[in-house]
Structure formats: structure tokens, C-alpha cells
Design a protein that fits this description.
alpha/beta; 11 helices; four-stranded mixed sheet; elongated; Rossmann fold; about 350 residues; five-stranded parallel sheet
Length: about 350
């Protein structure tokens, strides 16, 4: 079947209106895992850690892979890599919907926004979304009012906490560089105004750079950060792989590696929002382990598979926030972590 036929098949499936609120009598629950460039093209059957976390957590609700759960992974294949951003997303979404899943699990906001254009009744459960209301995914956290819900992050409150952590880590803090990616959507205007207001109150200057304007993307942003004479770097928003990325390792891993490379080349500490990247060399993070967002999403998904309507299932915003430091990386860039901060941290990597 050609791609147009596949797309038409997916849309036809939507018009039927699949009922996904209870397990079909004749088959296990079907859950489609929908991703973009999260895995290596050389490992097409590997859904990666995020979706593995969902599957394991579903098991704690009695929904077990191979018994009463069937999953399938849909992603940007090699033959779609030259297509424009929304084009390949539409093809992958149509392919997933043609499988007639009982629910779809999605990483991040961008694919969800494209999915909304399909007007499907299939429940969509997201994870790792930064402020679902500002992102335009739901109208209300308590009652999403449609077929979309999941696990979100109170991202911009955390961004202010990262700014406060930066001042604690670098008492002479004067300049902060925000690194973002326009492909992931604009940083919400309202929360960013509040962030800049808090920064002004701390006498901290805020500048920003879009990594799509840098040859090599995030991994090559060290020189720009150094030229900006920033004291601390804060990655913000959904940051994707380099434009010329052809795989080789998952971007879940590659993202942390690129942050570390930027930090090492610039000599400027990075404060991230995910504790995972600290294990890869980033000096500090305040937030939750990224897999935890998907464990929370799995709890939401379990309720839906057992009969709840997505519109009645609140978005889970109950983050388990931690401060994690990497003392070894701090020493590499000749940064001395204050003793009080080390004591307050939930974990310090020596």
C-alpha cells in the first residue's frame, strides 16, 4: 500500500470512532507507542526507555505484556527521514491509527498537536509535556474535556527554581543563557515574562539562542555560549536532534551527551530539568527523572484502559522533584559547589 493509501486508511479508521474505553472481548488491550526521532534507525523494534517504563508500570495494574496487553511501536523510519516535520508525523500517526489501538502513548507535545488534527476518538496519553495548558494540549488540568490527557510537568515554575539554583551555585551570577529549539514550538510568552521578571529582580540578564541557528545544533553550541559570556546555561523547551542527524543512538541519550559537550567546551555549568542528564555529565538539575513522567502516564493509561473516559481523568502533575549534582563535572570546569548546596541536594555524583 502506498503512503496516500495508508493515510486514507488511518483517516477512515477515525470516522468509525473506535471505542477504546474497555478491553475488547476477543483480544488484549492494544497500546500504540508513538515517537519521533527517539531511537536509532538501526534498532527499529526497540521502543526505548520511556515506553519500557510505561509497559512495566502497566504491569503493576495487572495489565501485562504478552498476557492481556499488546503494544506496537510507531516511529520515524528511514524512508520518512527526508520528509518535512509534519508530513512524516501525519504518516506515522495514520499508520498507528490503522492498527486500531485502544490508546496511544506519545512523547512530548509536538506529535500530540498533529494528532489533534486527525479528530480521532482514540484516547491519547502523553508524557514529558511541559505545561500542557500553555502547550495547547488540554483546556483544563482537572478535566481535560476531550480524548487527551497524561502526565505533565510544571515546567516554568521549575525554570524559576533553576534560576534560583543557579544563583546559589554561582553567587556572582549576572548572565544566564537560555538554549531552546523552535522546532519544539515557541516558549510560552506568559511564563517567560514571569521568568524574566524574576531574573530582573535578581539583577540577572537573560539572553537566548535557538539551536537551529547553530551549525551542528545543540552539540556544537559551546562556542556560542562562551561568546555570550554567560555564567550559567539553562536548556528550555523541547530540544530536538541536529538537523543532519541520521541516528546512531537514541536522542534520549544523545541529548544529555550534547549538553555535557556544550558544558565542557564552554566551561559554563548547565542546569537541566531532568536528573537523567546529570548522570551523563551535566553539573546540576532540578526536576524529576524523565522516566518517572512515563510511569505517571502509565497510571493514567491504566485507568482509561479499565473504563475511565480521558476527559474525566485529570492530567497528573505530581512530580517527584529532586536536586541532583555532579561534583566530578563541576571540578572539570573549575566550579566549586557550595557546601550548603551539596548538603541540600538529594543526590551528589562524586
Amino acid at each position: 500500500m502506498d503512503r496516500r493509501g495508508l493515510l486514507a486508511l488511518g483517516i477512515a479508521g477515525l470516522l468509525v470512532g473506535i471505542s477504546a474505553f474497555a478491553q475488547k472481548a476477543d483480544r488484549p488491550y492494544r497500546v500504540a507507542y508513538l515517537a519521533g526521532s527517539l531511537i536509532s534507525p538501526s534498532e527499529p523494534a526497540t521502543p526505548g526507555g520511556y515506553f519500557d517504563a510505561v509497559t512495566r508500570q502497566l504491569g503493576s495494574h495487572g495489565i501485562v505484556a504478552g498476557r492481556n496487553l499488546e503494544t506496537r511501536f510507531f516511529y520515524r523510519r528511514n524512508d520518512l527521514r527526508d520528509q518535512r516535520d509534519n508530513e512524516w508525523k501525519k504518516e506515522v500517526i495514520a499508520e498507528a491509527l490503522s492498527w486500531q489501538p485502544d490508546a496511544i502513548v506519545v512523547v512530548g507535545a509536538e506529535v500530540v498537536r498533529v494528532l489533534k488534527g486527525f479528530r480521532t476518538n482514540v484516547p491519547v496519553v502523553f508524557g514529558l509535556v511541559q505545561d500542557p495548558v500553555s502547550e495547547g494540549l488540554v483546556m483544563n488540568l482537572g478535566r481535560p474535556e476531550a480524548n487527551i490527557t497524561g502526565a505533565g510537568i510544571d515546567y516554568y515554575s521549575l525554570a524559576i527554581k533553576r534560576l534560583e539554583l543557579a544563583r546559589e551555585m554561582v553567587p556572582s551570577l549576572k548572565r544566564v543563557l537560555i538554549v531552546h529549539d523552535r522546532r519544539g514550538g515557541p516558549l510560552p510568552a506568559g511564563p517567560m515574562r514571569e521568568f524574566r521578571r524574576v531574573a530582573r529582580g535578581m539583577n540577572v540578564e537573560v539572553s537566548d539562542v535557538d539551536i537551529t541557528e547553530i551549525d551542528g545544533g545543540l552539540c556544537s553550541a559551546g562556542a556560542h555560549a562562551r561568546n555570550a559570556t554567560a555564567d550559567v546555561i539553562l536548556p528550555m523547551g523541547n530540544i530536538g536532534p541536529p538537523l543532519d542527524d541520521r541516528g546512531g543512538k537514541s536522542w534520549v541519550e544523545g541529548y544529555g551527551d550534547c549538553l555535557y559537550e556544550m558544558q565542557k567546551r564552554s566551561g559554563i555549568p548547565v542546569i537541566d530539568d531532568s536528573s537523567d542528564t546529570v548522570g551523563q555529565g551535566v553539573v546540576a538539575a532540578i526536576g524529576e527523572e524523565s522516566f518517572e513522567s512515563f510511569r505517571r502516564a502509565a497510571n493514567v493509561l491504566a485507568r482509561i484502559l479499565k473504563g475511565a473516559k480521558p476527559a474525566d481523568v485529570p492530567v497528573d502533575m505530581q512530580m517527584r522533584v529532586q536536586i541532583v549534582l555532579n561534583a566530578k563535572s563541576a571540578r572539570e570546569i573549575r566550579l566549586e559547589l557550595p557546601a550548603v548546596l551539596r548538603l541540600r541536594a538529594d543526590r551528589v555524583i562524586e
